[in-house]
Amino acid sequence: xxxxxxxxxxxxxxxxxxxxxxxxxxxxxxxxxxxxxxxxxxxxxxxxxxxxxxxxxxxxxxxxxxxxxxxxxxxxxxxxxxxxxxxxxxxxxxxxxxxxxxxxxxxxxxxxxxxxxxxxxxxxxxxxxxxxxxxxxxxxxxxxxxxxxxxxxxxxxxxxxxxxxxxxxxxxxxxxxxxxxxxxxxxxxxxxxxxxxxxxxxxxxxxxxxxxxxxxxxxxxxxxxxxxxxxxxxxxxxxxxxxxxxxxxxxxxxxxxxxxxxxxxxxxxxxxxxxxxxxxxxxxxxxxxxxxxxxxxxxxxxxxxxxxxxxxxxxxxxxxxxxxxxxxxxxxxxxxxxxxxxxxxxxxxxxxxxxxxxxxxxxxxxxxxxxxxxxxxxxxxxxxxxxxxxxxxxxxxxxxxxxxxxxxxxxxxxxxxxxxxxxxxxxxxxxxxxxxxxxxxxxxxxxxxxxxxxxxxxxxxxxxxxx
Amino acid sequence: xxxxxxxxxxxxxxxxxxxxxxxxxxxxxxxxxxxxxxxxxxxxxxxxxxxxxxxxxxxxxxxxxxxxxxxxxxxxxxxxxxxxxxxxxxxxxxxxxxxxxxxxxxxxxxxxxxxxxxxxxxxxxxxxxxxxxxxxxxxxxxxxxxxxxxxxxxxxxxxxxxxxxxxxxxxxxxxxxxxxxxxxxxxxxxxxxxxxxxxxxxxxxxxxxxxxxxxxxxxxxxxxxxxxxxxxxxxxxxxxxxxxxxxxxxxxxxxxxxxxxxxxxxxxxxxxxxxxxxxxxxxxxxxxxxxxxxxxxxxxxxxxxxxxxxxxxxxxxxxxxxxxxxxxxxxxxxxxxxxxxxxxxxxxxxxxxxxxxxxxxxxxxxxxxxxxxxxxxxxxxxxxxxxxxxxxxxxxxxxxxxxxxxxxxxxxxxxxx
Lengths: 467, 417
Hints:
The structure holds two protein chains of two kinds.
Chain A: H1 7-17, H2 23-32, H3 34-42, H4 50-59, H5 76-89, H6 93-105, H7 110-113, H8 116-128, H9 134-142, H10 145-150, H11 164-174, H12 182-192, E1 195-198, E2 210-213, E3 223-225, E4 228-230, H13 234-243, E5 245-246, E6 249-250, H14 251-264, H15 271-283, H16 288-295, H17 314-325, H18 332-337, H19 363-378, H20 389-392, H21 401-409, H22 419-429, H23 444-459, H24 462-465
Antiparallel strand pairs in A: 1-2, 3-4, 5-6
Chain B: H1 3-21, H2 23-36, E1 45-52, E2 61-62, H3 67-73, E3 85-86, E4 92-93, H4 98-105, E5 109-116, H5 124-133, H6 144-152, E6 162-165, H7 201-211, H8 221-242, H9 256-269, E7 276-282, H10 290-315, E8 321-326, E9 347-352, E10 359-361, E11 380-381, H11 382-392, H12 398-402
Parallel strand pairs in B: 1-7, 1-8, 5-10, 5-11, 6-7
Antiparallel strand pairs in B: 2-4, 3-4, 5-9, 8-9
Helix pairs in contact in B: 1-2, 1-8, 4-10, 9-10
């Protein structure tokens, strides 16, 4: 089986390994071929991202005469804007996509953590380890101050351990629900006693907490974890958990393989896919980068049944629209609308985080998404999120209503929509306010009415909710 | 029901708006309103309140006469015996729950104790799915009320037969043949159009409906999304025209549960034929420093439910409404070193309404006989809890939804409406 590398395949990879590509980016990917494109995504350290860092430096600084920065990192909304800005304007899409996945994988929430800096630092840690060894990620998150507070391990002491983190470490993060017992939960909780924070205080709004391994709070007794007995500490517990195997091989490997494939490719993967990725996990020393490098070159990833079958989360939806609109934005609209769209980023309802997929879509969120993209495309002002129609239409033939539709579908990855949908859009462009036909002429006034409305219809079509 | 309301519905929704926008509901919708506004089957509303995170039943309905509670298990975070609102000489409500206590005093509250299922699962997510689907084996994909809806609501044409006042659609309401809408804010519940070109709004809305009405030759994910979008358009058209005259007849507290219940009251008062309303209130996963946070949550639950029924009383609507609570599990009997409680098993739940028969159903928690993890042994199967509501309130063969063998608990007066 070989992979047919064309514009559609490149757009598919860009939707999954990033947040969607612009027409110019697609031109480039098609030109350099599959292997070089995957290299760019996966080995992103070679891509110069200094423009993004410089922009963010300015946007997070107090620049006179403004009295506050555009992204105020002392407030959680500022952190949300900062993160969405990175996703939208990065030259290293997979770095942000992985950071976003880790954010879903190991949620923590500001409502409980309270310290905005702790949430920001956790996000930076996830970016630092975005494609690292899984062991390093698990250790870093287990000692992350926001996580220690979020799942209560910071209060766990010898004698009466708090089980919250120990349970979710195995259930949600590494093994899956049926691969440990309640006794394992208790024993891992004992091993993790003493991993706490110091300096967690309201005096500085809970922003100064640092990891502390407090020997006095640690349970030095013998524990039996997943069948292994010893005086285990937190590092031992993580090692035992990640090394656990059953008749099908590495338990954590299969868990990680399934989650990665489900996030990047499609749901309910066949066993051979899990086996293949678990093999890479084992042979690479549990390297996430090696798994992703392999996954994006698998022919199965490019099969028709893998394309446009994942529902975009609200964050992915907003970021994709901003990227493909090549919008200017201060992120106020998308971040202000995240809760209405059902995704309170950095403030999840529980440790599992959002269920995702079709659970993102209900009647309320369909309207909320439409409201957000309506604001993107109808703002005629000079501040906030706005688009440049002349830029989007540059060089396009716009004689007929069909021309207008054709001028935009490639940009939004909608070239494969059914002919009926295409007809609905052409009819919209050519409809007068009383519903009769014969409206469209290529004037700036008509463009202002109909192109904005058409883009909004495209961004609220079922196809655009999928990636 | 006054005739003019029905005529209004016909004129305003059935013909002028919905039929123009959404062919699927045009005829069925009009017929539906005719039927549902008559007294009878459509007159009963079930309000489901999910207390997400695992509510601590022992600090909600307190076994205050049991010395193990105060002297052994809840030394620090326990509710003092002399503060509880006594129910039966052995169990008492947390003192912040004066609202629910007044419903109890008025004979409108049932307390169901010890509810769980065999081999209780201590994972939030697994246990929540079990409760949503009413299936400990997790073989059911649809929710328990989704299965009920498929059997009884499918094809009735009403886009508002049930809805979730929630940011997401709970799995309890996941059905195959019915899409339940979900929303938290009616003002924003519409397809947004270009405010600078109001004269083109109808074209934009028509385009949105049309692009979501494409016939697909094979079932796709697009089709699932388009079904939801169409239902959004039709339910929005209905809601926006009917509920504008609502004015609350009670003062609701300021919390998200109260806001959601107030919107439920608005929908009930709007006579939309809604039979199921679903509300989620979170924050009950109190692993640490539980006492103050949990008391605040219980007070919000109690005050909000009381205000909801006060409002319905004032609107003349309370006789047709039954409210039930659930939570995925109770908490560990022994408090932990963080002044909180870890995941447990059996919990306590409430049923409120004129049809609720006052009483405590199921035995009080037995703190002297715990399971190997230090959790309560469960006493009442949650399918009996659901089944009693299905049979005696929704007038359904509960065994067809839940399977046979779950005794009716008798807390609903089946002939009350």
